[in-house]
Amino acid sequence: MTAKGILVYWRSLVVVLTPLVLLPLPLMHPDDSAEGERMAPEARIARAAYGVLLLAVFWVTEVVPLPVTSMLPVVLFPVLGVLSTEDVCVAYLKETNMMFIGGLIVAIAVEHCHLHKRIALRVMMVIGASPRRLMLGFMIPTMFLSMWISNTATTAMMVPIVSAVLDELKAQEMQNNERRPSVISKATSRHDSGTFDQETRRKSLARVEMDKLPRPSRESVAYYLGVAYAANIGGTGTLIGTATNLTFKGLYDGDFPLLHGLNFANWMVFNVPLMLVNAVVAWVWLQVLYMGLFRKGGNKYKQSPEQLQAVEAVIGAKYRELGPMTFHEGSVLFLFVSVVLLWFFRAPEFIPGWGRLVSKEVKIKDASAAVLVVFLLFVLPANLDFLRPRGPRKATPALLNWKIVHEKLPWGLVLLIGGGFAMSAAARKSGLSELIGRQLVRLQDSMPPEGRSVTILVLMCTATTFLTEVSSNTAIANIVLPVLARMASAMRVHPLYFMMPATLCCSYAFMLPVATPPNAIVMAASNMRSGDMIKAGLGMNFLCLATLFIMFPTFGTWLYGLDVFPEAAAHVGPIIAAHVNSSVILS
């Protein structure tokens, strides 16, 4: 078989060879304990390292679907003697994962009644239709909606609107040059909101004859990239914005249970300002790169009065398609606002939260508020037909039904987050976490004391940003964050100082279509060149890193009190194998 033929089966080769290549780890430290005795610390650590490295390779290479790899801890760690099956399974449905599921179901309810589309179109109508304002009109609702619902769903909803507007601009330009009639109705019908979502997803998975489609103009590239950037950036604004944020919360709470935990309010206090700064930076960057901002000739991107009217007509027509706001939309909006307020005011710190008022003995967390609102979504009616004098002919449907949730909820992400929690628990209980912390002290000793933590912050965040370009951001978070937790503990640096910036960097993936679903969707819908996305995305990566490196060591350190090392963070999770010889494996 030729080398080319072998490469066809590279996934199978990785699946078979990786366990064999890593096999010396447990074989070099066999379990010599008698029956009924506790396994030797060296053997337990070696076996945990085998499982962790195997999961890391499978996650990064994606040789099998990520959710399938995420279920491997249920087999690996019990068979290796690191954790019992029961302990592994418990890690898959922690409070953080329940909050994630609840938030996703609320987001599905918003999508189901098209409330997100009404919000987006209304914002665009208010902002205006000039080229620079139009980009803001695309980016602001995308960013806001991505704070609460899936980045993928937000992008898939915005792309047909962008396409319809750009088609009308092109038609108006042709009309001005060739006196052709307007095609507002044609553009509007062709990008009907009811069919485009499926079409976009189909294109993002298989590009059918993409090379035969015309390349977009520089202005069009800027609009499409603006939507993708806004979706990625918007996900950093809230804890439920992306799965990586909740992965971080779960790992942080599990590794440092005695520290003051993160909640919805104290996450937003720092990350919403950072999100807004990054959104402005993205807008300016795309304007400079593609629309001549601050350069001669930038005025050529101004639109004629006819083009402005055409854009406003397209947006207005799509808004009118939604009709007047329904009772269904109003009820979902009320519940959506309610769950956000419940999350924010559970423990806002500047005033006593409702969680403390409800129960002083039992700690109430954000998952409780999410599940309460989810329950109401399945109970409250979607219309008021039951109040008619003659009564309804059939039962009034609820605001949401389980069939829709079953179809739209990304169960794979739930397993991916749970797999990360299980891997972290195995590393803690085996003593692998303690060993990694001891080894990282060597890295600390090899660097000058001045600016040591800032240097490591810059290096780790930069590496994480570019790793997420080629692998799942949640998988990278599962691998990187536990290491940073041990590093912070070993260096006596507040864990948030390393872990939160790295979490945010998992969302700074702007260069490649495979990096995030929003990137893939706009690439498929626009047929832009890969070079356009790489060129703009590389600059955007460094710009977001720059804003993070400026704001977090200053504003973030002051806000979270990171200049003082809490003694509760001196050990990661339960202290196990404290006297393990650090030269056992990683010397």
UniProtKB/TrEMBL annotation:
GO terms for cellular component: plasma membrane. It is a multi-pass membrane protein. CDD domains: SLC13_permease. Residues 177-198 are annotated as: Disordered. InterPro entries: Na/sul_symport_CS (IPR031312), SLC13A/DASS (IPR001898). Residues 189-198 have a biased composition (Basic and acidic residues). Its main location: membrane. Keywords: Membrane, Transmembrane, Transmembrane helix, Transport. The keyword Transport applies. The chain crosses the membrane at residues 6-27, 146-166, 221-244, 264-286, 327-347, 367-387, 456-484, 496-516, 536-560. GO terms for molecular function: citrate transmembrane transporter activity; succinate transmembrane transporter activity. It comes from the Eukaryota. It is found in: Membrane. The keyword Membrane applies. Belongs to the SLC13A/DASS transporter (TC 2.A.47) family. NADC subfamily. This is Na+/dicarboxylate na+/tricarboxylate and phosphate transporter.
